[in-house]
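Table S2 (text version). Query chain:
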Amino acid sequence: MIHRLKALAPAALAGISWLTLSVACAEDVKLPATMVVTAYDTGTAGFNIAVGVGKMMKDKYGTDVRVLPAGNDVARLAPLRAKRAVMSAMGSGTYFAQEGVFEFGTKEWGPQPLQLVLSSVDCNAGSLGVAKDTGVTEIKQLKGKRVGFVVGSPALNQNALAVLAFGDLKQSDVKVVEFSSYGAMWKGMINNDVDAAFATTITGPAKELETSPRGVVWPPLPASDKAGWERVKKVGSFFFPHVATCGAGISKDKPVELGNYPYPIFMVYGTLPEADVYAITKAMITGYDAYKDSAPGAAGLGADRQTKNWVVPVHPGAAKALKEAGQWTDAQEAHNKELLKRQQVLAAAWTDYGKSNPPSDDKAFLDGWMKARAAALTKANMPNGFE
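Corresponding structure-token output:
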């Protein structure tokens, strides 16, 4: 039956239920014969880790995992929403999509009920990589420099702004250069089209920049600079101080104090059945040893290394698997319920806004939604996150 299913076109597979595809495997974990996962561009940490996880699922459970690279958050989520993919290895765009902000504040999107499976925090960090030939060694020295943005990727763009905030810089203090994708932005770094771009320190493109004539540096964000970190969190509440000991130009002998958040974040839609997400999560937990060394950062997916009480809820199926692994507490459960409640508040606010005859102009629509969103969260006594 599996061979017959592999012969089907992806469009046909999309219409087949998980139950039809499920096959019994080791440890009573049931995974589909074929699974599609989206990720960042080829060569990035997220893509490489997703491939490593996929190989484990193929070797251990017979599941063919197809990893689809996409240049921005909208492109990564669209296949999941259309039920052509099951899971995505996302970044902080997971949070922006949940909140219905930036590119997700359009008529076509709105707040998305995204929930976590497993995420990685390892020896790497996420920050602005800067071309060494600029002479920049501190964030504040980026004033007037060219900073890369990616069209349709609020995660990367907002992350860049959060790091700039550490140096008390705003978007108007730098020259924004827009690119069509993450990969194109980092090619722009090598080609001297831009001076700084956001990335995880272990991403392949940053390694390429390190070995290029331009070189790479990561201006530090010391945890001791309380004022700087207060500014960071106003723009990117999902960041936390982190000492990076691996990446382009970084090692255990040459660590750098930077910022970080979970990446990649393996996430699904909350509408995916609990049993399905439980199976995926349990497979990733029990198969950890088979992929933890497959790519830099993969080791951070360990069940005992999960970020607790973050800003996006864990899917109940994943929580069940983590609880079985002894990595889930009552405090986490209570925090998770509040986050799930937040998603309900945002969904209701979006529905009400749609019924209020909102303006057709895109900018006016987004402005109106942000006001409606803020009002709904205030009424529910929940933080806005985007003042």
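Notes on Table S2: The chain has a mean pLDDT of 92. The first helix runs from residue 2 to 6.
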